[in-house]
Design goal:
The complex is a heterodimer of chains A (about 325) and B (about 190).
Chain A (H helix, E strand, L loop, with lengths): L10 H20 L3 E2 L5 E2 L11 E7 L2 E7 L4 H9 L5 E8 L11 E10 L3 H16 L8 E5 H9 L8 H10 L4 H6 L3 H13 L8 E8 L15 E9 L2 E8 L4 H17 L9 H10 L3 E7 H8 L17
Parallel strand pairs in A: 1-5, 7-8
Antiparallel strand pairs in A: 2-4, 3-4, 5-6, 6-11, 8-9, 9-10, 10-11
Helix pairs in contact in A: 2-9, 4-7, 8-9
Chain B lengths: L2 E3 L8 E4 L2 E11 L7 E8 L5 E7 L3 E3 L3 E11 L3 E5 L6 E5 H4 L11 E7 L2 E7 L2 E9 L13 E5 L4 E4 L8 E5 L4 E6 L2
Antiparallel strand pairs in B: 1-6, 2-3, 3-4, 4-5, 7-8, 7-10, 8-9, 10-11, 12-13, 12-15, 13-14, 15-16
Classes of the chains: A alpha+beta (about 325), B mainly beta (about 190).
């Protein structure tokens, strides 16, 4: 066992991280995308029931105000976009409570960027270019697979991701030795998709290629807009290499009213599940009302990207000090 | 009864699953960026020894299993049960053949072993890593052979059969690695 004060990772990976950050900054600088900073501490937070947040007390004598450590810089960056910033990117820390494991540390580094005038496919082009640039000193990927969620799901499971059939999904789970999914997922289509995708599809996206999976089912839309042609799917993309999820992007929802309704739905779910209550970000809603330009945006976990570049098996290897040593 | 939540699952933790006591081997946190978090857990059934994988929703919990490993002395076999004693307290436990399993090959009276108790009754018995046992029967070796290349079978006082070098003779005591069932060396009296 190494002494506790020592970093968990290899010191050469500190250099790789510095090179990665420099390469990203050069990449966006060449494309005229502006680097910005937004607060890590915020008065409001996302409503996503799947994300647990950290809170802290701001002592403003004699008052005490609850502030949140951001789970992503999304809302603040969208306010900048609505204010007319043009295309922007940010490299920052994000915090998600309770997430720890081989691929998770509760404090991690995100690269998030928004491109005004881009649609989801323009954004995928740019992700592909960025990955190529930052990977080039380390390894070369054979190709890029752009697949719809429905296609990749069908390919690896034979199931239709867009049409939920409890009978088909259940018998698939039984055949693959995952019978616990039947009680665990019940009749929730979204839960079944999360389960099957993470257990049976994602691990297969591991043939030294970049995977861009788009067109997520509408029940997994999050902050993406629904597809204009097909309301069963949403304009959302996820990035995978070696079976590891690296990023999540959207053709952004610009409709303030739709956003407000999604907030309400998530707040209702939080109450049902006895999760900490949150209030919706009114400043974001006002920004959307005033008009968010048509844009596409994506967040990529840089620790995981660095893991895949350097083929590290654990996130601890690419962090100076993971939470247990922080 | 105490319960453990998925975030407390770690290697070695004893929990109840499907009414059987189990030990957690590995716990992998699986969480889509947007979506439900799961824990994919590799777990050993302590009754059958079988290893299975099972997924839980993060935050779910399992009851703890009252399982402890205690070092005991093996006393004797009464024909249907083998008897063990905790040296400090003289407390005695009995275990049937099914519970003792292949460990019977390595149990000699008075030897130390580890007995796993579940709700205070023996669940399994693990012998010491190395045991010393007398050879009750083996073919006479060829004259002049000292290296032991090839070897020959030898029956031990417990009934176990191990391969020994040709120079080892009936009546001698040998040291055996119980994890592999292999001869290690002769033991000088």
């Amino acid at each position: 066992m190494n002494p506790d004060w020592l970093p968990s990772g290899d010191l050469t990976l500190l250099k790789s991280r510095a090179q990665l950050l420099a390469a990203i900054r050069q990449f966006f600088s060449e494309r005229g995308v502006l680097e910005v900073e937004t607060p890590l501490l915020s008065q409001s937070i996302g409503t996503d029931p799947q994300l647990a947040f950290f809170t802290t007390d701001y002592l403003l004598y004699p008052r005490r105000q609850r502030l949140y450590l951001q789970t992503s810089p999304e809302f603040a960056m969208k306010r900048l976009l609505a204010a007319g910033s043009g295309s922007i990117y940010q490299i920052c820390k994000a915090f998600r409570n309770g997430e720890t494991g081989r691929l998770h540390n509760p404090e991690f580094t995100l690269l998030e960027w928004y491109r005004v005038g881009f649609d989801l496919f323009d954004l995928m082009d740019e992700v592909e270019e960025l990955v190529k640039v930052v990977f080039s000193p380390y390894r070369s990927l054979t190709c890029t697979h752009r697949l719809s969620y429905q296609a990749v799901f069908m390919q690896h499971t034979g199931l239709d991701a867009l049409r939920f059939s409890l009978a088909d999904y259940s018998s698939y789970a039984e055949q693959t030795g995952l019978a616990e999914a039947i009680t665990l997922c019940g009749t929730s289509h979204a839960l079944w998709l999360d389960f099957i995708f993470s257990h049976c599809v994602q691990p297969k996206l591991n043939d030294n290629a970049l995977y861009l999976v788009f067109g997520y089912p509408a029940c997994q839309s999050s902050l993406a807009r629904l597809n204009a042609q097909n309301p069963d799917i949403t304009d959302r993309v996820e990035v995978f290499i070696d079976g590891v999820e690296l990023g999540n992007g959207y053709y952004e929802l610009t409709d303030a009213q739709e956003q407000d309704e999604r907030f309400d739905r998530e707040i209702a779910i939080r109450r049902l599940q006895d999760l900490p209550d949150v209030t919706k970000d009114v400043r974001l809603l006002k920004a959307l009302e005033s008009g968010l330009p048509d844009c596409a945006g994506i967040a990529i976990g840089l620790d995981r990207l660095l893991m895949r570049m350097t083929q590290s098996t654990s996130i601890d290897q690419v962090l100076a000090f993971p939470v247990v040593k922080a | 009864m105490a319960t453990y939540s998925t975030n407390e699952f770690k290697s070695g933790l004893k929990v109840m699953l499907d009414n059987d006591p189990c030990a957690i081997i590995e716990n992998e946190f699986v969480k889509p960026g947007k979506g439900q978090a799961f824990n994919r857990v590799k777990i050993r059934n302590l009754k059958t020894g079988r290893v299975i994988e099972r997924t839980f929703k993060s935050g779910d919990s399992l009851e703890s299993a009252d399982v402890v490993d205690i070092e005991m002395q093996y006393l004797y076999n009464d024909g249907s049960f083998r008897h063990f004693m905790v040296p400090d307290t003289f407390e005695q436990y009995q275990a049937d053949d099914k519970t003792v399993g292949d460990t019977a090959n390595w149990l000699k009276d008075q030897d130390k072993c580890t007995v796993t108790l579940w709700n205070d009754s023996p669940l399994s018995v693990v012998p010491a890593n190395f045991v010393e046992l007398a050879i009750t029967e083996t073919d006479p070796g060829l004259r002049g052979d000292t290296s032991g290349g090839g070897g020959k079978p030898a029956t031990l006082e417990t009934g176990a059969v191990v391969r020994v070098p040709l120079f080892v003779q009936t009546g001698e005591i040998i040291k055996v690695d119980t994890r592999t069932g292999e001869y290690v060396s002769r033991v000088k009296e």
